[in-house]
Amino acid sequence: MVQKVECAIQDRYPDDFSWCYGCGRLNKEGHQFRTGWDGDQTVTYYMPEPDHKAIPGFVYGGIIASLVDCHGTGSASLALHRKNGFEPDNEELPPRFVTASLSVNYVKPTPEGTLLKAVGTVEEIHPKKFKVAVDVFADGDLCATGEVVAVVMPASFGAK
Amino acid sequence: MVQKVECAIQDRYPDDFSWCYGCGRLNKEGHQFRTGWDGDQTVTYYMPEPDHKAIPGFVYGGIIASLVDCHGTGSASLALHRKNGFEPDNEELPPRFVTASLSVNYVKPTPEGTLLKAVGTVEEIHPKKFKVAVDVFADGDLCATGEVVAVVMPASFGAK
């Protein structure tokens, strides 16, 4: 079973948009989540750091929420990019999304020291708005479910 | 205007429950959110680190989600503690909550370099379950709203 994303959409974000604490490849202090296709679903793998605990033995919910957040925006970007005829191994710049809303249900405590796998199912609800249902697994156990509504980043958002 | 929480509920959590990456006073790598009363509402102040960005100029949504999360559990703890007759400046150990669910609506981009203020309104929906509505302000501007459902931590959760 593949436990690594080969072609991540975040690898293709332009440098100016690659500083996200969650998924920016240039943010060395961040989580550097990487999201790719797994058939018609999307996947992000992440191993939490030892400090990322809620109480000893269990992962902090804010880390799970962060994983769901960036997995959601990355999945939306993958989906619109594919709709436009591109895959993340193309050189073409992908569309960049921001999170409109995020929700997480904590199904069971997430054990520490286990590779997490976020799996996304993307639905287009408007040409510029996508809904991503996210399941987070630890060693095959469903620990959290979430939903992200992601919208195409407004041009004004990155204006300097 | 007071911009600091004098008596935080997290200051009273027992050591074993003070390692949370969001609000554990013993987790030196974490955010160390501190939540206290402000009249009948609750408040947490937080200055994001420079790395905690989404894109340059704006705070990462996962940090906002983390703030909402711990502000929610801390507020629930404050509320049940007060119901039991105690305030966070008492020596009495407060009840500890875990997050059942978390939602965040990102109302507008949150500017970097600004002290964030989370304000909570707590509602008891069951003797062991509290709902906390959270508003997150940056310099007086409402940037995000959220909701946390927090439940009293099951005894099994901390079992070693």
Structure, explained:
2 copies of one chain form a homodimer. Chain A is an alpha+beta fold and about 160 residues long. The first copy, chain A, has one domain (about 10-150): Hotdog Thioesterase (Thiol Ester Dehydrase, Chain A), CATH 3.10.129. Chain A is built from 1 helix and 6 strands, in the order ββαββββ. Chain A has one helix at about 60-85; strands spanning about 35-40, 40-45, 95-105, 115-125, 130-140, 140-150. Chain A has a 6-stranded antiparallel beta sheet with strand order 1-2-4-5-6-3, with helices on one face. The first copy, chain A, is globular. The model of chain A has no long low-confidence stretch (mean pLDDT about 95). The interface of A and B includes residues 27, 52 and 55 of A. Chains A, B: It comes from Sporosarcina jeotgali. Chains A, B: This is PaaI family thioesterase. Chains A, B: Pfam families: 4HBT.
* Oligomer kind: homodimer
Strand order of the largest sheet of chain A: 1-2-4-5-6-3
Q: Output the CATH class name of chain A.
A: Alpha Beta
End-to-end Cα distance of chain A, whole Å, is 44 Å
Give the SSE order of chain A as H and E letters. Answer: EEHEEEE
Radius of gyration of chain A: 15 Å
Write the layout of secondary structure elements.
The structure is a homodimer of 160-residue chains.
Chain A: E1 35-38, E2 41-46, H1 61-83, E3 97-106, E4 116-126, E5 129-138, E6 141-152
Antiparallel strand pairs in A: 1-2, 2-4, 3-6, 4-5, 5-6
